[in-house]
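look at this:
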Amino acid sequence: MIFQRATRREFTQATAGIFVALFAILVSTLMIRLLGDAARGSILPEAVAALLGFSALNYIPPLLSVSTFIAILLSLSRSYRDSEMVVWFASGISLGAWVRPVLVFIAPLIIVIGALSLFVSPWALSKSAEYRGLLETRKDTGQVRPGTFQESSSGDRVVFVEAISEDDMRVKNVFVSASKNGRVDVTMAATGYQEFAENGDRFVVLENGSRYELMADSPEFRVLEYGRYAIRLETKEARRMEEIKPNQMLLQDLIKGEHRSLKAELLWRISMPVSAIILALLAIPLSFVNPRAGRSANLLFALCVCLLYNNLITIGQSWIAGGKISFLTGLFGVHLTMLALLPLLFFRRIAVFSFSRFFQ
């Protein structure tokens, strides 16, 4: 028991160190990407921190799974290298006795990975998409600066405002140029204000102005004088809320849904905690290291097994979405294939008999 507690403590320290290192690399990469988007004007600078948090939550489950696999692999490899495994085997305990300490160590992590992949990650992705939609809405109106030409997020409207009131609701001397279907509309107004519809769409209402309609292939144009003219801004917020992506949907909606893309997303979420368990168990036989040789080849093979597992999950998800296989076939086929390697790898390390002796 003392040895198992020391081993679990080593697992915990290694997992924490590896996760912090991988998470720091991930956050740095996401930060650079978001700062680049902010520099190009795709997102607002004040939105970088919120979007970074939502994106980081989505990547925590696979990072925890990989960190646990690498931590168990490195810890047991060190035991082989330092000949601690010799003491373990000399005491009459086989390699299979490591299964229980590993399962006890990984049990709380599996609960965390399952909760994150099934519930937290979809929530973070949906909030990120909703937040981006609100930011684009603000970019269309609230971010218009007096005295500058501001292009809308769709790229087909340019707005110029000479002055904005202190409450950002009323504008003065407005110029709007919009192009659609080969027609150019130029609208000018002395004053204007913002207005919200019942469905949440935002309008800018212009007062006391004129509108010029020009066709690209015709010299003729039409002039309209108006006292009140409303322009609906292209927020597209209502359409975004209807077109929710599968990775943003709640778990109960995925289970009830019959579409193939929903089943493919359900496979991915279930595979996160299941693959973490199987990878942790695979790390036990894969950790074997000859003390007289290096462990580079062993770690490279273990890394290939991990990459193969993740690729099989991705392929199964793609095949389910494409209708090539059913959901149950993809779910059990991928995980049972990797689970079948577990007794073979244990047998390879435990069995005394070897076919190579016949060729010596």
The longest strand covers residues 183-196. Residues 52 and 332 are 34 Å apart (CA to CA). The chain has nine helices and six strands.
